[in-house]
Amino acid sequence: MQQDSLSYSKRQNRSSQASKILAQLRDKQLLVVNPRRKNGLILYKPYHAEFAGPGAVVGSLFDIDIVRVLPVGKLSLVDPQTSKERINAYLIRRQWIRLLKQITDNPVPLQRAQLILNQFENWFDTETAARLPDEAFALLVGVLPQTIMKVRSQVDRLEV
Hints:
This protein is of the alpha+beta class and 160 residues long. The protein has two domains: 1-96, no CATH class; 106-160. It contains six helices and six strands, in the order αββββββααααα. The chain has a three-stranded antiparallel beta sheet with strand order 4-1-6. Strands 3-2-5 form a three-stranded antiparallel beta sheet. A hairpin with a 4-residue loop joins strand 2 and strand 3. It is globular.
C-alpha cells in the first residue's frame, strides 16, 4: 500500500515538473538540458516528437509548437550564460535530431522501434526506458505504438 502511494507521489511530481517546463517553453524561455546528467526531454509536437538530450537547447523559437513534454531521467534544465553556450547547445540539439533522423530513415518499422528502444536503453538504462510510454517512442521514430509494444514484448530484441 505504501509503495502505491509512493508511486502516485512520484507521478504527481513528474506531472507538475512537466507542467512547469511546458509553461516555461510556451513563454519562449531558452533553456539547456543539463549536460552533466543523464537526462533529457521528449518534446511532443502536433504530429511527432523530438528528443533533447544532455547539452541540447530547448524552448525559444525552437519549440513554439510544443504540445506536451516528458522528462527522461532526473531532468535538470539550466540557463545558458553566454552566447557561446547557446550556440553549443543549439549544435547539440541538432545532433540529437540527426541521430533520430538516422533511425527514422530505416524503412522497416520494427527495426526503427528496436533501434530507438536500444538507443534509450544505452543512453539511460533499461529501467528508465521501460518507464517511458510506447506512444513517446512511436512519435519519435514514426511508428505505431503497437509496433513499440510488439518489439518490447520480444525476449531477444537483437534479432529483429
